[in-house]
Every structure is written in C-alpha cells, then in structure tokens.
Amino acid sequence: MTQLNLKHVDVEPAEFAKVEQPTLDYLFGRKVTAKVFFLLCLLMVFDFADRMIIASILPYIQKDWGISDAQAGLLSSILTLGMVLFAFPVSMLIERYGRIKVASLMGIFWGIASALGAFSSSFSHLATTRLFVGIGEAAYAPASYSWISTAFPRRRLQLALGIFSASQPIGMAVGIAFGGYVAQHYGWRHALGLLAIPGIVVAFLLYRGRDYQSVLVHEHVVQTKQAQSGTSHSEISLASSVPSRWTLIKQNWNAIRHTPSLLLTYVTMAVVTLQWIPVVFFLPSYLHRVHHLELAQASLMTSAFLLVGILTLPLGGWVLDHLTQRFFKAKFYVSLVGYALATVFYAIAFGFLTDLKLQFGLIVLAGAVLSFCSSGPLSLTQELVPVSARTLSGTTSVMTIHLLGSIPGPFIAGLISDAYGISAALTVLPIISGIVALGLLVAALYFYPKDIAKVKHSHFEVLKQ
Q1: In this model, does residue 153 exceed pLDDT 60?
Q2: Would you say residue 46 has pLDDT above 60?
Q3: How far apart are CA 144 and CA 167, in angstroms?
Q4: How far apart are alpha carbons 22 and 3 in whole angstroms?
C-alpha cells in the first residue's frame, strides 16, 4: 500500500511521474518528447502512404485484372476491416507492453505485409495482403494519441494533435503521388514493394523511444490530525492500490459508456470520414474519367489536394488551443462551421461545376476547412476520459470511424458509381453525411459541459516511465 499526498507522490522521481488533469509540462522534457514525437509523425506518414497507395494504382490493377469499382473499393474496405478486427486486442498489448514498442513492431509488420502485395497473382491474394496491412495498422493511431496527450502539456495538446494529424495527408499524398509515378513507369507491383522499405526503417528507429505506464489507483480518504501543530486542521491523503488489469479495463469502459458527448463525438468523426474518404479514394479516377486527365496527373492533383492539410491541421490546432483557453466550447463552434462549409463546397463542386479549375479549387477548399477543425473533435476523445482510458478511448474512436466511415465509404461510393456514375457518388454521399455530422455534433455540444466537469474531478494517475 502506497500513501499518496494530494500534493505529491511519495516515490522516487526517477521512477515515477505524476500526471494530473490537465498536464502542465512535458512529461519527458521538451527535447526527448520532440524526438519521439518526430518518429511517431514520420511513421504515421508511411502508415497512410502504405494505406493510400492503392488509390493511385487502382486503374492499373483494374486494367490488368478487370475488376469493378465496387471490388476496387473493397481493397480499401478490407484493409480497414483488418484494423477493426484487431484494434482492441492490440490496444490491450499496448497497455501491457508499452505504446512505443508495440507501435514500432506494428510498423514493421504492416510494412512487410504491404511489400508482399507486390507478389500477388490475383485479386484475392492482393486483398489478403491488404487485410494484413490493416491488422498491422490496427492501433497505431490510438497508441500515438495516448502518448501525445500525456507527454505534451494541455496548452499544446490540440497543436500537437494537429501536427501529428498533418502526417496523414502527407502520407496520403506521398502514397498517391509515388504510387502513380512508379506504377506508370515501372508497374504497380514495384510501387507497393518500394514504398514499404522506408516505413520499416523508421519503425526500427522508434523501438527505443521513451514511454510510460499508466496505473489507475483505488483511493479512499484518510483523515489525520495534525497533532504536532496543535491545530484542528485535517490533512486529506489517499491510500492507493493497483487494481487488476481487467478491473482497470472495466472502469475505463464504464467511464466511456457514461459520457454521452464522447460517444456522439466518435460517431460524428465517423460520419465526417464517410464524407471525405470516398472523395480522396475516387478523385484520381474521377479526374481521369470526367476530365480525361492522364492518371499520373490525376494522382498528382489528388496529392496536392491532400497536402493542404499540412498547413491547415497544425494551424487549426494552434487556433483552437488559443480559442479554447478563452471559450471552452470554441472547438464545437469552429467544427460546426467547418462541417457546414465543407458540405456546401463538395455539393457545388461535384453537383454543379464543370470547369476543372473552379471545381478543383472548391474541392481543395472543402478539404482545407475540414482539416482545419479536425483536431477539436480528436482532442475530445482524449480529454473526456482519465489518463488510463486514453488508449481505449482512441481505439474506440478509430474503430467507430472505420466501421461507420472508412469501411463502408469507398464501397458505398463504388456501388453508387456503378449504378449512377462517379459524379453522382461524389455528390450524394458528402451531402448526406455532412448533414448527419452537423446534427450529431450539436447533440454532443449539449452534453459536453456536464461531461467535461466530471473528468476535471477524476482521481490521480500515477505514470511509470
């Protein structure tokens, strides 16, 4: 039994770090935190590059094997299915063996699986390798979110999450541009094999990164008289003990289940994903079919569309950090405006415009406003739960996003495209999903003040480095 005072943890500082809500400073110091953060961001680049390369090489695969748009969409959906099936099992490994080491091993696994796709001899073989890429990527993002949310001070959280999230469009752009270029000049198999190599190298470098262990304490109040001082003042201290791993998981699940704004945020992010994922996935094919662009040029334009997030994601996080310090609901209002504008821009671009420059400019603008406000809802998945529940909350968020957004999105868009044309698919789906997302976020805003107040009064977290 370890005695904890309300103002300090009575253990050696070299072994333990105390984290309260909110975190006030860098857990490992600025330099070490920046080093591990850089490797996490770099590996996230190759995570999404390996994931999205399939979008730029799809036309070549369709030409070789004669697969439909629905089958093409399935190559993306099956990768996400692998992520969903293994997200919770991997998250348990993360809590047991550490976020950084598990993330490193996952990067090696998905890199090898992606490279094996170069040797596929049929659609089913390629789909199997994409499934294993998804399994490797299962809980990398939640592990990173949890580490970042604890290692960075609260005043820098949305900026850090914004910078980390900017790795996603960079990775998408790299995957699409690299895949399109290599596939055109050397074949799509070379594109899959070559891109996997640098990601595996980064994953090896990450393995030795600094990490922490979260421990949820059972606590009860002990009143002790200050006899020596002769006063009647009472000192409140905490008697703590470490619960079992399953007790910890159960307590964290209960915290998530009883937080309505958190649950609504999960679904909101999933529906927003349902809006933009089909656009990214089918934009090269759209530009090729409708505007008759070369596939390499279409892939480069799609990469340019994604690269806007490099600026808007960190900028949005920085702005939201400052606004949230003054108006604690700011992230909701900014996100509502962003979702509404993006929905209108997508509807006009794909439903009414025919000029390529105007259309593409509006598509880029829609992506910019979405990415600008995305760190707000993402930060909610971490700040609405205690420290020990952050990995679980991140995993639940990612699973919801994939089940309701990433998995059905390309497949549904492919079905609509096969039946009514690709323009109809990229018009109808963004409009419907945008309207639904707005309604869900308004509902989350209603519950938010009460939910965030509960977290502010949560108990202590002892984090072992």
Answers
A1: yes
A2: yes
A3: 12
A4: 22
Question: For residue 229, is it within any domain?
Answer: no
Mean pLDDT of 197-215: 85
Residue 230 forms part of a structural domain: no
Q: Which of 157-161, 167-171, 242-246 shows the lowest per-residue confidence on average (mean pLDDT)? A: 242-246
- Write out the two tokens for 326: 């003054």
Report the C-alpha gap between 89 and 328 in whole angstroms. 34
Record the tokens describing residue 373, joined without a space.
């406000």
CA 298/CA 283 separation, integer angstroms:
8
Tens of pLDDT, residues 59-89: 888 888 888 877 887 887 788 788 888 888 8
Q: Distance between CA atoms of 420 and 432, rounded to whole angstroms? A: 16
CA distance 342 to 366: 4
| Closest residue by Cα to residue 166 from 53, 80, 52, 48 | 48
End-to-end, the C-alpha distance of the chain in Å comes to: 20
Q: What is the CA radius of gyration of the chain?
A: 23
Structure-token match 């003990």, residue found: 241
Total domain count, the chain: 1
404 torsion bin: left (phi>0), alpha (psi -120 to 50), beta (else): alpha
Tell me: the pLDDT tens digits for 351-372?
Answer: 999 999 999 999 999 999 999 9
Q: Is residue 219 part of a domain?
A: no
pLDDT at 22: 46
Give the domain range for residue 333: 9-213+246-464
CATH number, domain with residue 70: 1.20.1250.20
Q: Looking at the domain assignment, is residue 234 inside a domain?
A: no
Segment (H or E) for 236: strand 234-241
Q: State how beta strands 461-464 and 2-5 pair.
A: unpaired
